Amino acid sequence: MKKLLTLAAGIVLASSMAHAAGQHAGGHDNSDGHHEEMAVGEPGEAGKVSRNVDVVMRETDDGEMIFEPNSLEVRQDETIRFRVRNKGELEHEFVLDDHDGVMEHKAVMERMPEMEHDDPNSVRLDPGKRGEVIWKFTNSGTFEFACLIPGHYDSGMKGDLTVEAKN
Ligand SMILES: [Cu+2]
């Protein structure tokens, strides 16, 4: 049953995305309406990884949910392999995006908690599992990483990601 719901949510999402694509010529639109790519960058190639960054996701004894570390710095044009490990007892995810993208995605997840996305800017892990995201940071600026499973962001699962301009 869970699988069926996931599938249904996926279909709803796919059709709403197709609809949005028709209206705005595709992609991940920002409010200024002309960005097809994500501001935070693009999927990276394994052969071009410049370094690995380890990130742990877990709950704390006092009821928080956290990323360790909770802030990250990278340089523009770096390709990073985020090695993400869920050391908690709940399912968690690691999503890279700009603030608006995180907020938008968070709202969608709250409406459709069963939705499972398979986007290159995220990885969702069962307790005890490891996964990775390979990402190229094409733009400098301030971005975020977050877990958008309902309730987790508000329990602390967010971090700042700074991309320093090259040179
Ligand atoms: Cu989480």
Key attributes of the depicted protein:
five-stranded mixed beta sheet, 167 residues, Immunoglobulin-like, binds copper (II) ion, 10 strands
Bound heterogens, unique: copper (II) ion
| Percent of sequence in beta strands | 25-35%
What structural class should be given to the helix and strand makeup? alpha+beta
Task: Supply the CATH architecture.
Answer: Sandwich
Give me the side-by-side strand order of the main sheet: 1-8-5-2-3
Q: Per CATH, what is the topology?
A: Immunoglobulin-like
The total of beta strands comes to 10
Q: Give the termini separation.
A: 53 Å
What does this structure look like?
- This protein is an alpha+beta fold and 167 residues long.
- The protein has a single domain, classed as Immunoglobulin-like.
- The protein has two helices and ten strands, in the order H-E-E-E-E-E-E-H-E-E-E-E.
- It has helices spanning 2-24, 99-111, and strands at residues 42-43, 51-59, 65-68, 71-75, 79-86, 92-97, 122-125, 130-136, 141-146, 158-164.
- The protein has a five-stranded mixed sheet, with no helix packed on it. Strands 4-10-9-6-7 form a five-stranded mixed sheet, covered by helices on one side.
- 30% of the residues are buried.
- Mean pLDDT is 84; it is low at 1-35.
